Amino acid sequence: xxxxxxxxxxxxxxxxxxxxxxxxxxxxxxxxxxxxxxxxxxxxxxxxxxxxxxxxxxxxxxxxxxxxxxxxxxxxxxxxxxxxxxxxxxxxxxxxxxxxxxxxxxxxxxxxxxxxxxxxxxxxxxxxxxxxxxxxxxxxxxxxxxxxxxxxxxxxxxxxxxxxxxxxxxxxxxxxxxxxxxxxxxxxxxxxxxxxxxxxxxxxxxxxxxxxxxxxxxxxxxxxxxxxxxxxxxxxxxxxxxxxxxxxxxxxxxxxxxxxxxxxxxxxxxxxxxxxxxxxxxxxxxxxxxxxxxxxxxxxxxxxxxxxxxxxxxxxxxxxxxxxxxxxxxxxxxxxxxxxxxxxxxxxxxxxxxxxxxxxxxxxxxxxxxxxxxxx
Length: 376
What we know:
single chain; alpha/beta; 3-stranded parallel β-sheet
């Protein structure tokens, strides 16, 4: 008997004309689309303008599909286009399954790429909700022919909590097993703010996990220290820090989300896991000293071990320490394919880095935790 292998966080690269073809008529003239600036460099136009996020402008939009390519080439403005840089497995379900077969991956949970920044680029909640519905429909359709292998994790429109609740109810009818929100709240409110309680109540009723997923932009922690007109100046900090995931997760504890909603399930992605034991220790210490500043009723580590999960990167050598600290049943692995830094050999790397754990714990991390949490 061998464990089933589940990649808990992998990506698609959406067709750049997805929204032009499918957005509701009232918004179609504002649809996200590939465009070129005065220097002929590619960018994703959103709501009729150049985006703020350097992630989707600057003539280096091939970055998300850079797996297997020389990053110096991909980060040269205008060198490789978005369409040229997309591997087939990033937009074609059959090609993705063939890639998985070669990597010995049984199941993949899929997230977007271009669409992740939509809510940070437009304050029109009706427009962004429409764009998100278009993506959710597309990813559900892409996965439908492969019900045992590909699972969509749907995007949530969080600028308007009523839109989010409506989308949850619509997706429930489509059989979606998980959703995600941007790790950094886009409305200027913590996700633990009572404004979002109708969303968490609906999530809890449905019993589906909610992922906090990192996304790029000039608002990412540390990016204010570097100019946003040169990818060389900010790229290393962007891929290194991912501090938004830490902040997004921490606010859920401070605001006692897990006290109000004891069945809500939170998954933290694309931030690695080696920092977690320290962070939980730190939060518990702060709670002990300043518990009067928060409605929490117990130490944060207790809530985490009851209601939270986190993904390891394939190359994380400290994962056995994390498993010992929080329990192997709280851990997954994630490839982030086809984004830069991902690539062939992820499963072998994960196996090597968790080899010191007891075999039952290895099996949990490799796939059993994902299967159980998402009901795959």
